Amino acid sequence: MIPETITPNEYQSLAMVYRSIRYADKESMKQHAIYGLCSEAGEAAGIMQKMFNGHPYDPENMKKELGDVAWFLAEACTAFGFDLEDVMRGNLLKLHKRYPNGIFEVDRSINRYPEDI
Questions:
Q1: Tell me, what's the pLDDT at 87?
Q2: How far is CA 46 from the centre of its chain?
Q3: Taking Cα atoms as reference points, which of 12, 14, 22 lies closest to residue 75?
Q4: Helix axes 84-98, 59-80, angle to 10 degrees
Q5: Which of 16, 55, 66, 98 is 20 to 30 A distant from 24 in Cα terms?
């Protein structure tokens, strides 16, 4: 049974039930996850690209592709030994440090501190 609401770490745990790579094979899992992230991001981009060719935008298809991106992100976090919530929080902390006023600033994006990757 899938609960109505879940935390990112709960999602990570539940999603890994459906992995095809053995949990002990971390190196293969890392590659599978990163290649999968690229592939699924490409599929999401393809939905947008097709609009230039007259195809209608399908929000349900986009939602499914973004779900696939989430699955591969969860697999990557698992393979590298990260909690999804820690990765998400770390990203927000990085952005807050880069943009302390809470808004995007072009100058701060271009001129970063050496440790700001």
A1: 98
A2: 17
A3: 12
A4: 100
A5: 66
Q: Which residues contact 75 (CB under 8 A, 6 or more apart)?
A: 15, 16, 19, 21, 29, 32, 33, 36
Confidence of residue 22 (pLDDT cuts 50, 70, 90): confident
pLDDT band at 27; cut points 50, 70, 90: very high
CA angle 12, 17, 22 (to 5 degrees): 105
Find out whether 97 and 105 touch, Cβ atoms under 8 Å.
no
Amino acid at 62: M
- Identity (one letter) of the amino acid at 17? V
Q: Which residue has the tokens 């990163």?
A: 34
Q: What's this model's pTM, rounded to 2 decimal places?
A: 0.89
Residue 55 host element (H or E): none
Task: State the CB neighbour count (10 A cutoff) for residue 12.
Answer: 22
At 91, the amino acid letter reads: N
Q: Are the C-beta atoms of 12 and 77 separated by less than 8 Å?
A: yes
Return the pLDDT at 39. 98
